[in-house]
Amino acid sequence: xxxxxxxxxxxxxxxxxxxxxxxxxxxxxxxxxxxxxxxxxxxxxxxxxxxxxxxxxxxxxxxxxxxxxxxxxxxxxxxxxxxxxxxxxxxxx
Length: 93
Prior knowledge:
alpha+beta; 24% helix; 24% strand
């Protein structure tokens, strides 16, 4: 399967280290951005995108007619997700 170039990792939301992993990646990106602002270079940001997974009890909320349904670019609430994909992208100047 081909992935986008901005894909970094997939982590389980039930993992006790979930939030600390996200915090660690964000703090690393902050340090890189600080360095790049000083010496010139791209600015990065982290996007966390939830994934429902198989047999998710919240799946009906995201189907047509559901409370959170969107016809395109579906955003899954992290509280409803079984896994989350992490993407590191660059900001436009």
